[in-house]
C-alpha cells in the first residue's frame, strides 16, 4: 500500500504544487451564513491549549441555560488523529455527562456525525470489518456513515439538542496539510467552505436558543488541507471569534501574536480565554487589549489523562457562563448595529453623486466586509444573513485585489504605517516612495517619463498635469521668455486645452474646466465652471449586432469613409495598419480644422495642452473612442508643440487589459496621470508622470519658478507601499493567473461569443468589452438617455439578487472585475446578466403594452 | 526579608501602575545607532526555541570566518534566571570551546559582563560573601562588577574578540515584568534603550569584521521590565531581525504569527531559522513567505542536558554559515540602498513646492522610518548611522501619533484593509464610515452640523464646501427659484467668496480661486487663476517684545482704537468681553463697507460664501487673525444670508489646542472642512460637514440636483478607521496625557516664559504660540521677506544638527508637535531654538559687518 518514503516525498511535493494551483475553483461566490443565531469560531494561539475544553465548556453552559430546549451545534471542519482524538466525539460524550451531573432531570438528544473520512482513518475506526468502498470515495475521502446518537434524561417534554459534526477527518495526529499528503486525502478550500456553510444552516429553523461553534485545528495560522492557513481559509465567513490563549511561560507573546494574526485578517475577537498557569498572563494581555476585549482565566486543567474532568468543568462553570454571556451580548450588539445602520446612514451621510430623495432606507446596502472581489452584505430577510456579492462596480473603478492580495496588502500597509506612518516628502527620500517612483517609471512610464509627481487622487493629478503642460507650452513657444522680459502681458494670453466631448477628468474645478459641458458642469453644480477648451467631437466605436462599428462625428459626415468603419473583431479596430486608411487622413483634416486658432476673442487663445482618456471615456458613459483617431490627434498636437496629457486614472493599471492604455494606441504622452487601481484599490494615491523636458521648464533660480502645488500627504508611505505591492502583483504571472507570460497582456476575460450574443439583444444599444470592463448601453427613448436616467434600476436590483452588485451610469450599465479575476467568474456574470436582460426586455414590452 | 504574599501582590500592583505611567521620560529623543557594522536582533516565536543556540551559532560562524581578527558583540538586554540561565554566560563559554575544536591555533579574547543585577540575583551569584551594598543600588539594581575575561589560543598575533554583555539581570526564570515585581528591581524603557545604545557603540572603531547581536527574552511580544512588549520597546532602533521559529506541531502558526507581530511593527525580518522536528514546518513557512525571506532548518537539538552540543554545532555549521552570509549581504544591501537613495530621489522625484535646483544631493534627507514624533534619519558621517530627529514640521502639519498610537493605528489600518479594503460608499453603509461620521458630528460638528461629506484632502473638501455654500446662497436668496423659472439667466450671476488676504485654502483651482492673489496664484503657477472673491485685509495679532499686539488693516487706520490693541496675555485676546470694545464696532463698520455690492462689473456679483481659517492662517505664514474680527465677520455675513465656511483643515483636531478652532472664536459655521490631523497623520481623508439647511438645498426629484462631486475613494474604510481611532485617542485623557480632564482643552505645550523671552530676541519680528504650534517671523529687510525668502536656511540646518527637523515658510519658521507630545519635549525644543537664535543673530551681525 505505502510506497518507499523518498518516493512518497517526491510524490507529495508534486501533489502539493498541483493543489496550490487549483485550491480555489474561482466560481462566482454564493457563500452566505445566517444571523438567526450566534455562530463563533474557536481559535487557539497554539496547539494543545484546550480549545476543545473551551468548546465543551461553552456548549455545556449554553445547553444548561434557559430556555432548556436550546440547541448547540458543534462543527469541527478539519480533524486529524481520527478517530482517537476526535474533538466532536469528545463533545458528544462529555456534554451529556456534564448535563447528567448538573441537571439530571434534563433531556438531551445528542448526535455525532463524521462526514468525510480518509481511508486510513476509516480503516482504524471500522477495524477488521473494513472493506474498501472505493466507489464512494472521492479525493481519498469517503462517507462511511459514521453517525451515532443518544438520548439522555427521562424523555418527558422537548429537550435540548446537541449536534456534533466533523466535516473532514484524517488518521494521523499531525497538521491537516501533512495528513493530506500522507493519506492521499485532499480537500480544496472551496469544498471546505461549501460544506461548512451547509453545516452552519443546521439550527436556523429552531425555536429555542441556538449557538453554533466552529472549532479550528491547531493554531490560528496552522495550514488546512490545501496548505492555506486556516485564518485565510475561513476568512470569507469572517465569523466572530474566541481566542484560546496560552497561560504558560512565553504564552503572553504567543497569545498577542495570534490575536494580531486574526486582527490583520479582519476578524473580530470577542474574548480571550486561557488556562491559569500561575503566571498571571492575563494582566499584560488586558493591558495590551486596553480592556476592550475581555480576558478570562480558566482553572488549571488536570494533567492526569484518566481524570474525567467533571470537577474541572464544575470549577470552570462561572467562567464559561460569563464567556457565553459575552458571546450572546456581542451577537446582539452586532445585530442591533446592522439593523440601525441604514437609518443612521440616511440621517448623517451625505453621499456623493446621490440624490438622497431617491434612496429609501431599504435600498441602503449594509456592507459587513469585503474579501477579494466580493462584498459580504447584510440582508434582512430569513432572520437576516450575511451574503457574498460580486463587487461589479469595482467599488467605483478602483478595485484590483483578490483575497490573497487583499490580505497581503493589509499586512504591507500595516507594516508601512508602523515603519513610517507618514513622513515629509519634499527634499526627502524614503523607501516606499522611491520604490513606487521606480516601478512607475519602469512600468507605465517606460520609454518616455523620467519624473514622478505624487498627489492624492485623479483630479489633483490632472490639475498638476495641466500646470505642467501649460508651463511647457509657454516655454516651448517662447512665451515664457516674452513674459519674463515683459514683452507680453499675462492678461493677453488665454491658455486652453484641447479635449474631447464626453471626457471627464475629475471633480475639482481645474479638472472640470478641462472638460466639455456636461451634466456635471452645469451652473447649479459648479457656478465657477467656464469650460476652457477646444472641445472636439470624437468618433466612437462599439459593438452592435455582432460587429464593431465606428460612428464619426457629425462634422465629418461629408467624408465617405464607410468602408473603414466596420470591423469583425476588436483586434482589427486596434490594428496599426489602419494608419493608411482613408479614414486616417480624414481624421487629420478634421483635427487640423478644429485646431485653427480661434479669433474674435478678447484674448489670444492658445491650445496649451491636449488631454485625453486613452481608448475609453469612463464617466462619459464607457465610450470607446476610435484608437486611430486618438493616435492622429496626438500626432497633430505634437506637431504643433502642444504638450500631450494622457488621463489614465481610469484606464491605467490593467483596467483595459494592459498596464497602460497608451500601449493600445501606440503612442506616448508628455504627461500622464494615474490613480485608482494604482494602489490595488485600497487607498487614494495619484501620480503625474512627466518627461524630463516638462520637468526642465520648472527648473530655475527662484522657488517661485518651482511647481507650487502639493497636498499634505504627498507620496504618503502607506499608499506608496500599497502601490508597490499591487503594481508588482498584477504584472507577475506567478501571482496574477490572467497575465499571459511574456506578453504583458491580460488574457481575454469576457467570453467573446457571449459578448457578441448580448450585442444582438433587442434591449441593447451597444456593447463594449475590453480588459476588465464590460459595458452596455440600454436602448431607451431619447428623453430617457443620459446620466440622470433611471431606466436600468429594475435590472440592477435583479442582478443584486443574483449576487452581482452593479451601479448604472444613466442608461449605461457595466460590470468591472479585477485584473486577477478568473474568466470563469466573468463568464458566470455575463450569463447571469444575459438571463436578466431577457426578463428586463419582457418587463419593458409589458410596460409598453400597459401604456 | 520577604513580605506576606498577598501584601506583596498589592504592593507590586501599585508598583506596576506607577511604572506604567512613568515608563517614558518623554525627553527629546537622541537615540541613534551606528551602521559601521551589521547589528541584528534575535527574536523567537516562543520561549525555549533555542534563541541562544542560534546566537551562539552565528557568533561562532562569524568569529571563525576570515578575517580572523573579527569581533562579535553579544548583548542580552534583559536576562531572567540569572546567573544559572545567563545566555551571555553560555555564549562566553561555548564560543571558545567551538573555536578550540575547529581552529585550535586561533586566538580569542573573550569577556563577559553583567551591568545591572537585581539584589536577589546578585545574592545567588556572590553566595555567602554577599553583603548588600545598598548605596550603589538604584531602582533595585546594582553593578556588582560582574566581569570576567579569558584568552584562548597561543596569543601570537591579533586574535578575534568576543564581547558578551548582559544589561539587566533578575534571579527568577520568569518573564522580566514578573521578575521586576517580585525582586523590586525596575527599569524604564528609556533606560534600557539608552544603555543598549551605549552597548551598540562597542565595536564601532574596530578594523576587522564586527557583528553585533541583540538577543531578546522569550517571544517577540513578551513583556519587558516596564510591561511594554519587547517588540514595542526596541522599536525606536528598528534593527534588522532574525526570527527563531518553531519546528514543533503547532509551530507553523506560532512562527507566522510572531513574524506578523514583528512586521506590523515595522521590523524587517531577514531570515527565519528553526529546529527540525520532522514535520517539515519550513515548507508551509516558505510558501507563506513567498520565498522572500529564507527559512533555514537546524538539526534536532540533543535533549540530554549533559550533552556539550559540540557535535550539534558541527552539524549546524553549514546552516549558520549560510545564515551569517544572509545577514552580511542583507546589511550590505541596506547600506548600498541608503547611499544611493539621495541620488535616485534627485533623479526621479518631482517634489512639490520645491525648486530642485536649490536642493543639492547632500541636502536630501534619507528617512529610514518614523516612531511617534521622531524620524529615524540616515547620516553619512562616522561610518554612517541612523539618528532620531523630532519631526517639527509635523510632516507638513499632519502629524499626531505618539509611538503607541502609531502602532495602534498600524494595526487598526491593517485590520480595516483586511476587513474592507475599500468599498463603495454612495447608497451604502459600513462600520468605519458610519462611526467616523458619528464621531465627527459628536465632536467638531457638535451643535450645528448634521451631515458629513467625505473626500480625499483639504483642497477637495474646500471645493465641495464652496459648491454647498453657493447652492445654499442661491436657495436662500430665491435665485434658485428664479433660475428654475427662467426669470434669471445664469450668465448674469457671478458668485464670489468673501475671504481674507493671506488665507490659503488648497492647491486645486477652485480652492485657489477662493484666495487672494499670492505667490501661489501667479500666472506662471496657475494660468487659470482669477481670484473670485471680495478679499478683506484682516487685523493680525502676534506677540512682540513680550506683549500681544493687534495690527489693524490700513483701511482702518483712521479709527483710533489704540487702547484696544495691546494685551498682556493671549487669554485676553480671546476674551469674549472684547465684543463690547470700540474696536469691535470699528470692525463692524469696516466689514460693512467692504461688503457693499460692487458695481461696474458686467455681471452682478454676489458674495455667495464666507470662507475663513479660524484664528491661524497657516500657509499664509502662520498669521494669527484677531479672533474678535472673525467673530464679527461671521455675524455680519450671517446677517446677510451669506453661508459661512470654516476651513479647519489646518486648525482642526487639536492643532490649536482645541478640537475645533471654532471654539476659540465662539461661533459656528454652516459648513466646515477637516483633513490633515483627522486621520492622526497617517493617510489622506477629508470631511466637509454641513448643517441640515445646507443639505436640504440639494434635495429634489432629479439626480441632477444632487451634489455631483465625489472621488473614487470617497469615505475609504482605512482612512475612516484611522480617523476613528485618532479622534478618540486625542480627546481621551486616558490616552492623551495633555488633555485637561473635563475641559476639552490641551494643556499649554510651549513654556510661556520662554516664548515671551524669544519674542524679545533681536532677530525675531513676532511670535505666535497656540496649541501645538510655535511660530516666529525672522526680522529681515523687506526685499528678503515672504515665501521665496531663504534667510532661515542656515538656522534650520543648525537645528537639524540638534535633532529638530523644521521647514521654513519663507522668513517664518515654526515648530509643530503632536497633540500628545510632552510639554517637556516642547520646552527642550524651544530652548534649543533659543540657543541657536543667538548664534544666528551673531552670524547675521558678522555678515553685515563684512559687507
UniProtKB/TrEMBL annotation, chains A, B:
GO cellular component: mitochondrion
Pfam families the UniProt entry points to: Aminotran_3
UniProt entry keywords in alphabetical sequence: Aminotransferase, Pyridoxal phosphate, Transferase
Spans through the membrane: none
Compartments (UniProt record): Mitochondrion
Main subcellular location of this protein, as a coarse class: mitochondrion
KW Transferase (keyword) present: yes
InterPro entries given in the database record: Aminotrans_3 (IPR005814), Aminotrans_3_PPA_site (IPR049704), P-loop_NTPase (IPR027417), PyrdxlP-dep_Trfase (IPR015424), PyrdxlP-dep_Trfase_major (IPR015421), PyrdxlP-dep_Trfase_small (IPR015422)
Family affiliation: Belongs to the class-III pyridoxal-phosphate-dependent aminotransferase family.
Species for this entry: Mikania micrantha (bitter vine)
UniProt cross-references to CDD domains, sorted A to Z: DTBS
UniProt-recorded Gene Ontology molecular function terms: adenosylmethionine-8-amino-7-oxononanoate transaminase activity; dethiobiotin synthase activity; pyridoxal phosphate binding
GO BP term, pick one: biotin biosynthetic process
Entry protein name: Dethiobiotin synthase
Amino acid at each position: 500500500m505505502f510506497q518507499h518514503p523518498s518516493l512518497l516525498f517526491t510524490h507529495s511535493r508534486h501533489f502539493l504544487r498541483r493543489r496550490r494551483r487549483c485550491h480555489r475553483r474561482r466560481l462566482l461566490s454564493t457563500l452566505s451564513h445566517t444571523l438567526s443565531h450566534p455562530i463563533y469560531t474557536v481559535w487557539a494561539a497554539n496547539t494543545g491549549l484546550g480549545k476543545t475544553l473551551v468548546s465543551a465548556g461553552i456548549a455545556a453552559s449554553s445547553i444548561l441555560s434557559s430556555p432548556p430546549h436550546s440547541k448547540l451545534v458543534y462543527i469541527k471542519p478539519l480533524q486529524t488523529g481520527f478517530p482517537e482524538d476526535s474533538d466532536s466525539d469528545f463533545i458528544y460524550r462529555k456534554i451529556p455527562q456534564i448535563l447528567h451531573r448538573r441537571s439530571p432531570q434534563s433531556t438531551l438528544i445528542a448526535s455525532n456525525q463524521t462526514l468525510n473520512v480518509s481511508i486510513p482513518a476509516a480503516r482504524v475506526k471500522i477495524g477488521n470489518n473494513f472493506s474498501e468502498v472505493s466507489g464512494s470515495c472521492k479525493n481519498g475521502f469517503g462517507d462511511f456513515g459514521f453517525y451515532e446518537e443518544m438520548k439522555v434524561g427521562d424523555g418527558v417534554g422537548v429537550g435540548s439538542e446537541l449536534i456534533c459534526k466533523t466535516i473532514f477527518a484524517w488518521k494521523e495526529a499531525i497538521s491537516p496539510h501533512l495528513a493530506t499528503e500522507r493519506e492521499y486525502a485532499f480537500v480544496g478550500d472551496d469544498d471546505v467552505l461549501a460544506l461548512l456553510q451547509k453545516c452552519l444552516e443546521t439550527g436556523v429553523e429552531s425555536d429555542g436558543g441556538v449557538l453554533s461553534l466552529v472549532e479550528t485545528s491547531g493554531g490560528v495560522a496552522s495550514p488546512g488541507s490545501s496548505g492555506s492557513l486556516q485564518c485565510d481559509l475561513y476568512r470569507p465567513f469572517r465569523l466572530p471569534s474566541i481566542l484560546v490563549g496560552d497561560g504558560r511561560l512565553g504564552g503572553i507573546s504567543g497569545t498577542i501574536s495570534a490575536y494580531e494574526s486574526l486582527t490583520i485578517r479582519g476578524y473580530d475577537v470577542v474574548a480571550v480565554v486561557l488556562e491559569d498557569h500561575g503566571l498571571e498572563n492575563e494582566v499584560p494581555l488586558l493591558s495590551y487589549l486596553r480592556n476592550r476585549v475581555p480576558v478570562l482565566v480558566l482553572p488549571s486543567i488536570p494533567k492526569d489523562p484518566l481524570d474525567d474532568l467533571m470537577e474541572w468543568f464544575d470549577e470552570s462553570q462561572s467562567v464559561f457562563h460569563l464567556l457565553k454571556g459575552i458571546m450572546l451580548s456581542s451577537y446582539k450588539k452586532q445585530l442591533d448595529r446592522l439593523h440601525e445602520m441604514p437609518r443612521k446612514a440616511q440621517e448623517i451621510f451625505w453621499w456623493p453623486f446621490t440624490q438622497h430623495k431617491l434612496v429609501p432606507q431599504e435600498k441602503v446596502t449594509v456592507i459587513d466586509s469585503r474579501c477579494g472581489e466580493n462584498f459580504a452584505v447584510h440582508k434582512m430577510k430569513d432572520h437576516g444573513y450575511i451574503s457574498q456579492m460580486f463587487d461589479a462596480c469595482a467599488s467605483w473603478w478602483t478595485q484590483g485585489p483578490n483575497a490573497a492580495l487583499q490580505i497581503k496588502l493589509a499586512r504591507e500597509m500595516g507594516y508601512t504605517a508602523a515603519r513610517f506612518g507618514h513622513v515629509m516628502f519634499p527634499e526627502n527620500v524614503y523607501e516606499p516612495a522611491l520604490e513606487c517612483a521606480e516601478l512607475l517609471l519602469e512600468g507605465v512610464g517606460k520609454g518616455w517619463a523620467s519624473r514622478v509627481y505624487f498627489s492624492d487622487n485623479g483630479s489633483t493629478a490632472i490639475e498638476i498635469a495641466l500646470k505642467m503642460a501649460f508651463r511647457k507650452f509657454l516655454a516651448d513657444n517662447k512665451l515664457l521668455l516674452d513674459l519674463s522680459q515683459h514683452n507680453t502681458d499675462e492678461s493677453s494670453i488665454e491658455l486652453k486645452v484641447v479635449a474631447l466631448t464626453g471626457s471627464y477628468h475629475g471633480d475639482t474645478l481645474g479638472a472640470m474646466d478641462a472638460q466639455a459641458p456636461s451634466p456635471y458642469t452645469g451652473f447649479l453644480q459648479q457656478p465657477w465652471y467656464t469650460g476652457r477648451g477646444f472641445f472636439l467631437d470624437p468618433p466612437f466605436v462599439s459593438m452592435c449586432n455582432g460587429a464593431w462599428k465606428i460612428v464619426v462625428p457629425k462634422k465629418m459626415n461629408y467624408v465617405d469613409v464607410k468602408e473603414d468603419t466596420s470591423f469583425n473583431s476588436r483586434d482589427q479596430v486596434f490594428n496599426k495598419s489602419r494608419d493608411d486608411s482613408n479614414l486616417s487622413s480624414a481624421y487629420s483634416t478634421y483635427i487640423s480644422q478644429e485646431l485653427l486658432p480661434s479669433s474674435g476673442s478678447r484674448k489670444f487663445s492658445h491650445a496649451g495642452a491636449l488631454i485625453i482618456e486613452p481608448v475609453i471615456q469612463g464617466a462619459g458613459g464607457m465610450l470607446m473612442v476610435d484608437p486611430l483617431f486618438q493616435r492622429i490627434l496626438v500626432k497633430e498636437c505634437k506637431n504643433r508643440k502642444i504638450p500631450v496629457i494622457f488621463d489614465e486614472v481610469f484606464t491605467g493599471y490593467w483596467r483595459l487589459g494592459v498596464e497602460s492604455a497608451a500601449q493600445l494606441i501606440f503612442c506616448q504622452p508628455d504627461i500622464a496621470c494615474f490613480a485608482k487601481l494604482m494602489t490595488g484599490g485600497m487607498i487614494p494615491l495619484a501620480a503625474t508622470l512627466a518627461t524630463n523636458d516638462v520637468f526642465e521648464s520648472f527648473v530655475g533660480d527662484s522657488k517661485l519658478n518651482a511647481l507650487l502645488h502639493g497636498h499634505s500627504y504627498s507620496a504618503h508611505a502607506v499608499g506608496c507601499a500599497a502601490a508597490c505591492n499591487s503594481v508588482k502583483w498584477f504584472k507577475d504571472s506567478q501571482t496574477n493567473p490572467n497575465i499571459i507570460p511574456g506578453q504583458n497582456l491580460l488574457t481575454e476575460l469576457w467570453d467573446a461569443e457571449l459578448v457578441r450574443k448580448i450585442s444582438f439583444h433587442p434591449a441593447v444599444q451597444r456593447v463594449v468589452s475590453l480588459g476588465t470592463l464590460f459595458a452596455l448601453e440600454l436602448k431607451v427613448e431619447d428623453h430617457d438617455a443620459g446620466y440622470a436616467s433611471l431606466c436600468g434600476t429594475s435590472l440592477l436590483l435583479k442582478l443584486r439578487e443574483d449576487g452581482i452588485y452593479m451601479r448604472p451610469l444613466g442608461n449605461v450599465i457595466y460590470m468591472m472585475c479585477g485584473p486577477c479575476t478568473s474568466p470563469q467568474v466573468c463568464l458566470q456574470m455575463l450569463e447571469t446578466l444575459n438571463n436578466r436582460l431577457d426578463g428586463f426586455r419582457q418587463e419593458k414590452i409589458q410596460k409598453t403594452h400597459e401604456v
